[in-house]
C-alpha cells in the first residue's frame, strides 16, 4: 500500500488529493513542517532532503511532486482507472509535464523567496527585499496562470489546465491558489484560477484530503 508523507497545506496536498481521486487505500504520515518534524531522524531516513512530499510505494520512496504525480498518473492509466495525465509521447503529455515542471521550478520557488529567505541569503537584512521580489514574481505568475487557463476555457468551456480535461495539474494549481490566500493576495482577481480551485475543492476526493489535513481552500 502507498504511504504519503505530508505536512498540512504544503505542496504535498496535491499528491494527497490525487491519491484520494484514485480511490485505492493508502496510508498517510503527518510530518508537520512548523514543528520541525521534517528534520527529525525518522523522516530524514525517508527523505534526506528534509522535504515533503515523499511517497513510499512498492518498497521504495519517490520524492518531488512532479515525479510522484507522473508516476501515479501512469500507474493508474495501465490499471484502467481515471485519467490523471495524457498518454506519454503525446503533445498533450508534454503540456502536462510543462505545467508540473514550471510549477515546481518557478512558482514554488517564488513562494520560497517569501517564506524561506534564509535559503537565498545568510544576511537577514536582505530577507525583506527577497520576499518583496518573491511577491512581485508570484503576482506575475498568477497573471500568467490565469491567462493560460482563460485561453483553455475559451476553447473548451471547462476550467482545467489541459485542453484535454482534468488532470493531476489541477490539484497542484489548487495548492498555489490556497497559498495565495496565505500571503494575503486578493485571489478573486484571478478568476480562472479561482474557478479551477473551487471545482477541484468541491470534489469528494479533495474534500477528504483537505479534511484530513485540517485545512480549507482559503485557510
Ligand atoms: N522540489 C520539491 C520541493 C518540495 C518542498 O520544498 N516542500 C516543502 C513543503 S511545500 C518543504 O518540505 N519544505 C520544508 C522546509 O521548508 O524546510 C517538490 O516539488 O516536491
Automatic annotation (TrEMBL):
* PROSITE patterns to which the protein is assigned, alphabetical: GST_NTER
Q: Which InterPro entries match?
A: Glutathione-S-Trfase_C_sf, Glutathione_S-Trfase, Glutathione_S-Trfase_N, Thioredoxin-like_sf
SUPFAM superfamilies in the cross-refs: GST C-terminal domain-like (SSF47616), Thioredoxin-like (SSF52833)
Gene3D superfamilies with a match to the protein in the record: 1.20.1050.10, Glutaredoxin
In which domain of life is the source organism classified? Answer: Bacteria
A Pfam family annotated for this chain is: GST_N_2
User: GST N-terminal domain spans which residues?
Assistant: 1-80
Coiled coil feature spans: none
PANTHER family the UniProt entry points to: GLUTATHIONE S-TRANSFERASE GSTA, GLUTATHIONE S-TRANSFERASE-RELATED
Its name, as the record gives it, is: Glutathione S-transferase N-terminal domain-containing protein
